[in-house]
Amino acid sequence: MSEMRLHDTQGNRLYLNAEERAAFLAVARRQPARDRTLCETLHWTGCRPSELLEITPARIDLSGGTIAIRSLKKRQDAAGRQKTVFRTVPVPPEFLDTLNTAHGIREAQKSRRKATAPIWDLSRVRIWQIVKRIMIDASIPDAPHRSPKGLRHGFGVHATVQGVPLHMLQRWLGHAQLSTTAIYADAVGKEEQGIASRMWGKC
């Protein structure tokens, strides 16, 4: 498995910074309901597109304020058998209201058939196209970070800057090893300035 990084071999950033994340969210909120909720889910949970496609109404906890996401990276138990791992990620109540209004989550949860049907009936390629279009509209530069992976990495960097403990971020992102999550502690640029400013304020 290749090592996860925040920069490619040419030194290009692989994550969206704070300004780019805000611009992406602003443009996403002007989109039709399906595209808006799809993009907001990626923004607020840091999930992978393949994981997003598995989210059903049954995995939305409207009262608890979380979304349950199945980690699709292969995991094995002590006996070497593949195991299923779910993680719950907290999301803003305003977003859950939007999700419920757009997709009738609460009503769908009353029917077993509807509750277990995917919310977004799309392919991974289509998700990539939607995200890329919105990133272009948000004036995010044509660079390696203009992708769904850049959005996921941006979530990790943002959480680290905001002081989210690495073990908690590890759980939210579905990393098997804390050492993988630790790359976000290497945030740079304005993100690193934000971390440093806290240190300066305590001198």
From TrEMBL:
<dbReference type="InterPro" id="IPR011010">
    <property type="entry name" value="DNA_brk_join_enz"/>
</dbReference>
<keyword id="KW-0233">DNA recombination</keyword>
<keyword id="KW-0238">DNA-binding</keyword>
<dbReference type="InterPro" id="IPR013762">
    <property type="entry name" value="Integrase-like_cat_sf"/>
</dbReference>
<keyword id="KW-0229">DNA integration</keyword>
<feature type="domain" description="Tyr recombinase">
    <location>
        <begin position="11"/>
        <end position="197"/>
    </location>
</feature>
<protein>
    <submittedName>
        <fullName>Phage integrase family protein</fullName>
    </submittedName>
</protein>
<comment type="similarity">
    <text>Belongs to the 'phage' integrase family.</text>
</comment>
<dbReference type="InterPro" id="IPR002104">
    <property type="entry name" value="Integrase_catalytic"/>
</dbReference>
<dbReference type="InterPro" id="IPR050090">
    <property type="entry name" value="Tyrosine_recombinase_XerCD"/>
</dbReference>
<dbReference type="Pfam" id="PF00589">
    <property type="entry name" value="Phage_integrase"/>
</dbReference>
